[in-house]
């Protein structure tokens, strides 16, 4: 099959490269000429494990190419995927759909025969109807169907998530479109991945419901962690104790500094707004959004308390800036709110991240970036673990203890053991676990 992927961002690139790897012929289209030029030369604009190799091998096999010309990419395509950005609109939190609608207008002008137009970007319920209306209005005689096919890719594991998905959700009631989508994903359901056909609106809502549920699960365990700290419990044991119940499941029960990233904050907000607009508010999601926002500031207070109530003039070393490991993505990373609050309190910040420093420089001011974790600890009054990169798990903690001005570690991801930290002489606090000294 021939595929056009509109938008060579995170979702478009990963999906395009994976479809090409299935044997389809894929053209990725992006208006950003510099990006297309770079991709043609094998430079990948994002950090995603395995993506550079996947792109290179499929370009070499002539199944994947890049262009700025939408008309060229779309002309012979059986399916055109819209994978452009849907950022939160400033002010009201609704998803900004202007890129999606512009893509729909451009696609309408470029298709030459029956074409399946697929929204892959996360879009509010009803967007598929609007895309269909725009195409029909722009080209009355066009033959097409609009399908919703949301992605469930995690950054850092996107290729595996694409190739071994828990499920594929396809929203369409058009029989021809159903056949095209079945053909596109054939390698996957031959592999036993369930292909779930629903109505278009149901598919759009399913994506938001999935992300909101996961954000709720994280927020739930975060609040239980706070309670553990008060009553003297251990949140990791609670998570295991509830997670072994199959009805609950053990994933997404890691307590931490609050969720961030390009999806959960934006999608929970958009779902909340849509639900309010339709007069069916999802109150549990409204609460999740508020609790998660407050949590980041609460994490800065935790650091301040560990330093005796004030960080003024103190040096705080930060390990991990990205919203999670194995990405360079800083979008809505908890580190931003935590560092800003500490700076407001008068702290001096030294930070290290294995991949995120370049992106961090764009969103944080007055931070000294260092190229290894030990330099972040050197002379610091406190060391805060914000992102659980594997490289931080096996640090020489004795060496770190010897380098710090004060041996204070605040571990917001529970990567160290309280008893070990205590015996090394650290004043150690973590999430939802009372320290040995407290108990
Ligand atoms: C998420 C969804 O998992 C994916 O299906 C969707 O398509 C896009 O959004 P992603 O944002 O890449 O993917 O990251 P994910 O691994 O889900 O983590 C999101 C945030 O939740 C991170 O800030 C992470 O640190 C946090 N998190 C996750 C926790 O705090 N605890 C957990 O148990 C799991």
Brief rundown of the structure:
This protein has helices spanning 10-21, 33-40, 51-60, 70-74, 98-110, 127-138, 158-163, 175-184, 186-189, 200-231, 235-243, 264-277, 283-306, 334-344, 357-363, 373-377, 397-403, 418-423; strands at 2-6, 25-29, 64-67, 79-82, 115-119, 144-148, 168-171, 195-198, 315-319, 348-352, 367-369, 382-385, 408-411, 427-429. The chain is of the alpha/beta class and 439 residues long. The strands form three sheets. It has a six-stranded parallel beta sheet with strand order 3-2-1-4-5-6, sandwiched between helices. A six-stranded parallel beta sheet has the order 11-10-9-12-13-14.
Characteristic terms for this protein:
EC 1.1.1.22; alpha/beta; binds uridine-5'-diphosphate-xylopyranose; 18 helices; 439 residues; 6-stranded parallel beta sheet; 6-PGluconate_DH-like_C_sf
Describe how the helices and strands are arranged.
Blueprint lengths: L1 E5 L3 H12 L3 E5 L3 H8 L10 H10 L3 E4 L2 H5 L4 E4 L15 H13 L4 E5 L7 H12 L5 E5 L9 H6 L4 E4 L3 H10 L1 H4 L5 E4 L1 H32 L3 H9 L20 H14 L5 H24 L8 E5 L14 H11 L3 E5 L4 H7 L3 E3 L3 H5 L4 E4 L11 H7 L4 E4 L6 H6 L3 E3 L10
Parallel strand pairs: 1-2, 1-4, 2-3, 4-5, 5-6, 7-8, 9-10, 9-12, 10-11, 12-13, 13-14
This protein binds uridine-5'-diphosphate-xylopyranose.
The site of uridine-5'-diphosphate-xylopyranose has 20 residues, from helix 10.
